[in-house]
Amino acid sequence: MTVSRPEGAQLWWDTCDRPREHWLMRESEQTRWPRSLLLEVCLRIVFPTVLLVAVYLLFAGHTRAGGGFSAGLVAGLAFVLRYVAGGSVTGLRSSRVQPPVVIGCGLVVVVASAIVPVFFGLPVLSSAIWTVDVPLLGSLKIATSLAFDTGVFLLIVGVVLNLLRTLGEGIQLGELESELNDHQPGDAST
Asked: So where does this one cross the membrane (predicted)?
């Protein structure tokens, strides 16, 4: 006995478990950018690792070397490496969250974390430390300056992503213009 499904349900059933992101760029997705298969494969390992190091730097910034600025630079370099490996096809152009929104969120978090202590009668940018006992990890110290560092982190990452988006698209448009100028109508080479 065969059960017939409507066409839309059959299409969903056939595609529901496919990965949303391609492991490597296809030739049809490539836009005038030299492709390095080794760089693309290594990037799949390095990119999440570098982002994890950036998160560590963010959380370790109050008591050790690190903080929002250095964590933002490390995360920004991960996105630069991703852009170098795949160009704007890697999601910078079509991401759901645009870089100006990330910059704005970072500014809001920085200003809010700087002004909130004033409402408690403390000077601007005052910091407090809370100690929390976590069953498996022991006691953790959480500083309120982590909010400020998170805002700086978002600000730096947003600026780097915005630079990649604007400069990268300008480079690609320049390449397209020069290619179009090389192949003018009536040219003997076409």
From this structure: 37-59, 65-85, 97-122, 142-164
